Amino acid sequence: MATTAPLRTICVQPTLASYRVPVYRELAARPSIDLRLWYGNHSTLRNAEPEGFAAELKPLKAWRLRGQEALWHAAQLEAAGCNDVDVLILSWGARYLSLGPALRRAKRRGLPVVLWGHGYSKNDSGLRRWMRDRIARLATVLLFYDERTAAAAIQSGWPADRVFVAPNAIDQTPILAQRDAWLADSEALSRFRREQDLIDRRLLLYVSRFTPENRLELLVDAVDRLRHQQPETLAVMIGGGEEQQRIVQLVQRRKLESFFRFLGPIYDEAKLAPWFLSAEAFVYPAAIGLSLLHAFGYGLPVVTDDNVQGQNPEIIAFQPNTDAPDPNGLAYRAGDAADFATTLDRLLNDATLQNRLASGARRTIEQRYNVPRMVDGMAAAIEACRR
User: Fold this and answer.
1) Nearest to 61 by CA among 97, 104, 10, 20
2) How far apart are CA 147 and CA 351, in angstroms?
3) Is 116 within 8 Å of 92 (Cβ atoms)?
4) Angle value at C-alpha 245, between 241 and 250, nearest 5 degrees
5) Which fold has domain 173-367?
6) Overall pTM surpassing 0.85 (yes/no)
7) What is the fold of 7-169+370-384?
8) How far apart are CA 301 and CA 203, in angstroms?
């Protein structure tokens, strides 16, 4: 019986992020796909070491053009001209000036292209949508991070068999391993809580970079309000970044030092785990992304704002409707610190709600938002190019 040859696939990306290594490794392990990754050196993210897949660094140029970032990745054009490739995966974004020429070259050669990206912009406009749609028309297949945007593409006229979803995910293996290890050693976890003076504290946890879009000043304001109803509140902030000094100074001006603890960046999952397991909620004022899935891996309910358009694609995993199956968090009115405080107070006062949200968070990860499911979507998009 004849066997189908693996599809020789080149995936061109601006960086090789550490959280993507397990994704590419899983994709390369699929028998129907022969994967090569070409990645750039975008300054926003340090490249990780490839492991378990073929990868090559291809320099990328970035500059400011009329106040906006513009990118030229010659690897996109190079890949479109290769003779030993069956399918290309290219990043979908209007800021890539090299993308249009690469797509046109691939189209002339009859080379199928999967465009992989958000499919929307947080700061969308008519011009942005027009540019994005014009680029999309040159592709063979569209690959989105979430079902909502994929459905919108189909409604706009894209054939359903050319639209795919790869739900964004992180590797939950180290998270679940540390979660199980700490929970199996209750004395070690109790000792950690005593040493960190967490006994009888109501711990709210933030783990991410300190950036303007995350609106951390709203968390400071919410805790200032919440402390009157919940005097044992403690917001633990793990991470660093451009906004850290400003937020620390804001806490000091408000005289809230006893309600906040700043730990700086921590990357070791074994050191992060006891903080996640000691918290009652993961708080992220705005623009949450992969941190949502990190918290869910520990079964930690998330509280963020209700401005879905301003969030990152991972927000599709967030289910704040407590009347729906498997709720996993609560949403407050965007920009409203008083409502943020009220929402946190509601959660801290209701142990039954906490447990229900925690169970929903774990099921979210187990059933949908994990690396194998993400790679299933990517593999299906690649296979569609065989037809």
Assistant:
1) 97
2) 32
3) yes
4) 130
5) Rossmann fold (3.40.50)
6) yes
7) Rossmann fold (3.40.50)
8) 12
